[in-house]
Amino acid sequence: MKRSHWSIPYVVFLAIFVVLPLLLVMVYAFQDGEGHFTLANITRFFSDSDALGTFAVSLEVAIENTLICILIGYPAAWILANKDLNRSAVTIILFIMPMWINALMRTLATAEIFNMLGIPLGKGTLLFGMVYDYLPFMIYPIYNVLVKLDRSYLEAAQDLGATPWKVFWKVTVPLSMPGVTSGVLMVFMPTVSTFAISEFLTNNKIKLFGTIIQENINSSMWNYGAALAFIMLIIIGITTMFSDDNENAEEALI
Prior knowledge:
Blueprint (H helix, E strand, L loop, with lengths): L7 H22 L10 H8 L1 H33 L8 H7 L6 H15 L5 H25 L3 H9 L4 H12 L1 H17 L2 H6 L7 H10 L3 H32 L1
Helix pairs in contact: 1-12, 2-12, 3-6, 3-9, 6-9, 7-8, 9-12, 11-12
């Protein structure tokens, strides 16, 4: 039996659970209720003030959440990867433990804490919940890059007279950018498309793009909901291509 045959189950799995759903999204996005080809679902998005406004709010929340996650996550990842500051694997496990719990359960628990404390639900509680849920997805890509960083680069910079601060900004940060890029993708795009977190942590006062998709699907407006999902896929694809180009450019510079 050839080694390539071992990949057959994975190919079948990808075909059924990845390729087929994406094809169905595309088919529904370019069909009307009677199954005829149309571009009306796509063009409707650009004239739908509610969808455009929600998309703008989603981008705003996603940018804010991503920036907060970077500000908190990068120092945390740097400390975890620094053997002088972190000598125990227990610290790393503590960051992983929240991810063992279902995200919906974590969100419900967070909302209940705010209710117990009498804190009104709104954008502040939404960002808190977003950061709480997505921070590990920012920390670990950066940590994985930092922990594998060739220390000889840092030592060479120190030998050339660079201060610890300059070593960090001129060597560590540029070399860790692939991890930052991966973290941004893993935080930014899910934030735009999520709906459960905003629903529970704002009492549905703030709608994100995922909420619009959910509402259309629940209202049996499959075609328009699929069109909105397709637009999200296009944005994710473009963002991923740009991130790959940036990583290739950084590797070329290094």
